[in-house]
Specification:
123 residues, mainly alpha, flat
Length: 123
Amino acid sequence: FTLNAGFLGLVQIMVYAGAISVLIIFAIMLVMKDDPEKTNLPSPNIPNILSGGYLTALLVAALVGSIWFTKFPVKVVPASGDDLGILANLMLGDYVVPFEAAAVLLLVAVVGAIILAKGADQK
């Protein structure tokens, strides 16, 4: 990568790959020729909506509380030619749980989008 910005180049490739996958999912959703009345979503009812809202509020409160009350470790990474190696050691050492949680969250989002794009008849 140019200007010795290896991490920035890898992040740019990952963002482009994510954008292409979202574009493909949107294309699948747009070319569906099914009846718009058919859906794989159940009809909404009040207890489900309220429990979903309560769960969302609880998760947001837990996230805000954990960010607010946690002292994050600050590590000074020395500037050297092996920035990607140091970053990989940090991401797969000290920060492996958030890294894997983000990967699982992205996987769940992609699987959910594919299930929604398939429609009701193609389960």
